[in-house]
Amino acid sequence: MVFSSPQFLFVFLPAALLLHTFAGRRLRNLVLLLLSLGFYAWGEGGYVLLMLASIFANHALGLWIQRGGGGAVLSGAVVFNLLLLGFYKYAVWAWDNALAAFGALGAPTAWLGVRPEIHLPLGISFFTFQALSTLVDVKRGTTRLGPNPLDFGLYIACFPQLIAGPIVRYCDVAEQIDKRVVDFEGFAEGVRRFVIGLGKKTLLANSTALVVDDVFALPAEQLTAGAAWLAVFAWGFQAYFDFSGYSDMAIGLGRMFGFRYRENFEHPLVSRSITEFWRRWHISLSTFFRDYVYIPMGGNRRGPLRMYFGLVTVFTLVGLWHGAAWTFVVFGLFHGSVMILERTPLLRWTQSAPRLVGHVYFFVVLNVSWAIFRADDLGYAARMIETMFAGWADPSRLHPARLFLDGERTWAMVLAAVCALPWIPWLKERYASLPSLPRGLEFASTLGLVVLFLASLLAASAGAYDPFIYFRF
Amino acid sequence: MRTATRRWSDAVLVTAFATGLLAPLVDHFVRPASARDTKPEMRAPAPAPAAPKSLDELAKLPRKVDAWYEDHFGLRDVFLRWHNAFKWFALGTSPTPKLVLGDDGWVFTTEAMALDDYRGAVPLTPGALEAWRRMLEQRRDWLASRGIEYMFVVAPYKTQVYPELLEPRFESVGPSRTDQLARHLERTSDFRIVDLRAAVLAAKEHDTPEDPTFYPYGTHWTDRGAHAGYVELVREIGKRLPGVAPLEDSAFEVSSVEGGGDSWAGRLYLEGLLPQPNLEWRVREPKARYTGNFREDPVFVSDREGGEGPRALVFHDSFTLPLRPWLAEHFSRLYCDWTHTPIPERIDAEKPDLVIQIYNGYTLMQLTPHALREEDAGARARRFGAADQVLWRFDAERFPDGLSVNQGAKLALDGGVLTLEREAPASLLFLPELDSPEGADLLVACELESSEAGKLQVLYCTKRLPRIDRRQYVETLRAAGRERVVLEVPEAHFVGRSALWFGPRRGVTKIHSLEVRAAPVRN
Question: Min CA distance, B456 vs chain A (Å)?
Answer without folding.
Answer: 17
